[in-house]
Amino acid sequence: RSPGGVRPVPAGERSVVLRAPAPDAEYRAAVAAANGAGWSPYSPLSEAAAVTAPPAPARPALEALDCVRARVSWVPPRHVPRVLGYAVVVAVHGAALKYFDSRSGTLVSDPKDARPVSPGSASAVIRGLSVDVKYKARVAAMNELGWGRYSAFSEIMTIGVPKAPEPPRIELLSSASIRVSWQAVQHSPEVVGYAVVVREGSQVLYYDSRSRKLVAEAEELRPVPADRTSVVINSVVAGRRYRTKVAARNPVGWGHYSSSSEAVTTCPPGEPPPPELVVLGADSLRVSWAPPDPAACVAGFAVMVQGGERLLYYDPQTETLAARRGDLRPVPAEATSAVVRGVRPGVLYRA
């Protein structure tokens, strides 16, 4: 028998399980070995171990999901004995503490009515919350020995409208178009769309995402989708001064508009210098030109060719000359030349 008269552990074993230790008592262990000559001295004592309730979890996170729901999430503590459930307590501004009931997904006043969250979960969705009320949450874990300490409270969360975006940027693309761009707004509940308002001189106009134009009335306008952070507006007027603001919307409602962007003034394009006309073949010519200054004011070019006594107009789709200008498309603004096909030999052409 071993020292103390108890039966020794068989020589082939390398561990033992101590059953029914006292809760919260601190234990250390030492081991001795025996052979035919007797028992060795005991080893030095091990590090201390105690059977306890779970430690307090790390500080949880609390985020709004929509107008009435929020998610509290935490990192499950690693502990032996294993965790059997979690309690979530919510502090409501101006009211007593509330307790999360996992059966109903709501907050209750009496902790006895709150069923714990299952041990396999690391988050819980709380229903029945209110807009513009401050909330914060904390979490505790339970095992067979009882409840551990509560974590620190989360950051304060309020279910509200998005904050105002940063001032947008406005760019002049041509004499008839501008681009408005902005930084995406990060918010919970998530942003579902944006509104763009443009001041044209003293008049306030609103961007319609369906027609992609500016309109005078904001009612029933569809928001710009939340995954977009810029729009191109093609209905601006040359010679006008423009500023813009942006607002974000979530399920709670519209946030405040941003501060105004810098102002830009659209401008009519200048007169291009005389073009150059080069013969390419028996039935084709090339018209080349330099863009006017400023080039940003150009939305496209029209090419007119005089063939003998006739004035003809260039069609960029067919690369031929038409007798009427009509609805011919302009040559793209980035182009500096056009090939004219179907010309007649022996005719004097100017462009």
Structure description:
The chain has 351 residues and is mostly beta strands. The protein folds into 3 domains: 61-159, Sandwich (Immunoglobulin-like), CATH 2.60.40; 169-266, Immunoglobulin-like (Sandwich), CATH 2.60.40; 276-350, Sandwich (Immunoglobulin-like), CATH 2.60.40. It is 0% helix and 38% strand. It has no helices and 32 strands. It has strands at residues 26-27, 34-35, 38-39, 49-50, 61-64, 70-73, 85-92, 97-101, 106-108, 123-126, 134-143, 146-147, 157-158, 169-174, 177-181, 193-200, 203-208, 213-215, 224-225, 230-233, 241-250, 253-254, 264-265, 276-281, 284-288, 300-301, 304-307, 310-315, 320-322, 331-332, 337-341, 349-350. The strands form 9 sheets. Strands 16, 17, 18, 19, 21, 22 and 23 form a 7-stranded antiparallel beta sheet that branches. Strands 7, 8, 9, 11, 12 and 13 form a 6-stranded antiparallel beta sheet that branches. The chain is elongated and about 130 Å long. 24% of the residues are buried. The model has no long low-confidence stretch (mean pLDDT 90). Residues 1-55, 56-161, 164-269, 271-351 form the Fibronectin type-III domain. This is Fibronectin type-III domain-containing protein.
